[in-house]
Amino acid sequence: MAHANDKLLGWVRLLLTPGVGPVIGRKLVHAVGGIENLWHLSDEGLRSLTGVGPVLLAAMRRSSLDEARRRLASWERSGLTMLSPDDERYPARLAALDDAPLILFALGTLSVLDSSRMLAMVGSRKASREGRLLTFRWARYFSRQGVTIVSGMAAGIDWAAHSGAMEEGETVAVLGFGLLAEASGDQRRMIGRISEHGCVLSECLPEQSARPEHFPRRNRIIAGLSDGVLVMEADRRSGALITAQQAADYGREVMAVPGSVLTRTHEGCHHLIREGAMLAENPGQCLQHMGWQLVRQTARRSYAPANEQEEQVLLALSQGPLAMDALSETCGLTIPELSSILLALELQGVVERLPGSRYLLNVELKES
Known about the structure:
Layout: H1 4-15, H2 22-32, H3 35-38, H4 43-47, H5 54-62, H6 65-77, E1 81-83, H7 92-95, E2 104-108, E3 118-123, H8 129-144, E4 148-151, H9 157-168, E5 171-175, H10 185-196, E6 198-202, H11 214-225, E7 228-233, H12 240-249, E8 253-256, H13 267-274, E9 278-279, H14 283-290, E10 302-303, H15 308-317, E11 322-323, H16 324-331, H17 335-347, E12 351-354, E13 358-361, E14 364-365
Parallel strand pairs: 3-4, 3-7, 4-5, 5-6, 7-8, 8-9, 10-14
Antiparallel strand pairs: 1-2, 2-6, 11-13, 12-13
Helix pairs in contact: 1-6, 8-9, 11-12
C-alpha cells in the first residue's frame, strides 16, 4: 500500500506533466484505480488508456520524479499545505466534480472548507461604494448565521465580502495566482488576515503570477466549494457571471441583487434574474432560499427621530438612498436646513454619506 506522502508525490508529478489538466488527470487516475498505479504502467498500458496519445505519452515519460520531489519539499518548507483528491481534508463539495483541481495549495484552517453552510459572494472589481457597503453588511450578517463566505479576493465586491465575513466569522479566498507569487502589500496583508480567519486556496503553482486565463478556472473553484452563489453587483462583462454560470452547471443555487436600471452596474445581475436566478432583496431571503434556519436573531439598531423634520428625512431615506437635492424637494427643506439635519444624523451613525452627496439610512425607524 502506498504511503500518503508517496500518493501526494504522484499527484504533484501528474500536475507538473505538460498537457495534463484536471479532467484528463482525474480520468487517468480513475481508470487505473489510483495514483500509485498510474506511474507503474508500461508504455503499452498507458497507450491503452483513453486520451493518451503519442504527445501525452511522451510528456508522461519525460515527467521527473526527482523534480516533483524537489518542488514538493520546497513548497512544504514554505509552509503551504497541499491537498490531493486522496487527502481526507480535500473539500468534499469539490471532490465530487469531474474538473476539480489535481492539487489545492492552502494556507490557514482547512476545516472551514467543509463548513455546513458555504456561500459565494461575488461581483465587480469596480463596484460602487454603495455596492461594497451592502456586501460588507450582508457578509457580516451571513457570518453571524454560521455561513462561511467564499470569494476571490479581488478588489471591489470580493474584498468587501471577505472583510465583512471576518467581522463575525470565517471566510475562504480562492486566488487566481500562486500563494508564493509576488503580490502587493495589501494583498499579502489580506492573505495573512484570511488565513487567520479561514483559508486561502489556489490551484495555481505557488510561484505562478496572475494571468487572465487563471480567473475563469478560479471561478469554477469558488462555485464548486459553495452551496450557492450570490452576485452582489455586476455588469454584463463581469467575471462574476462566469462564476454564476458555473454554479448553475454544478447544480448550485444562484441569487442576484437587483439595482437601478439607470446605470450599467447591475446589468449582469438583471440578466441572471431574467435567466432564473433568485432576486435577492435582503440577506434573510437568501437564507430562506437556501433552506438555512436562523442561528441567531440579528436585530438592526433602531432610532427614534428627534423631531418632525428628522422624521421626514428618515422616512424619505427608508425608501432607499437619495441625493441631497432630491431629499430637499421631497421633504420641503432648504439645503442649509437639510445639511444641518444630515450632519447631526451622520455623526450619530444614523445615516451614511455616499458618493455624489447621496445618503443611506443605517437604522430601523422606531414607530412613534
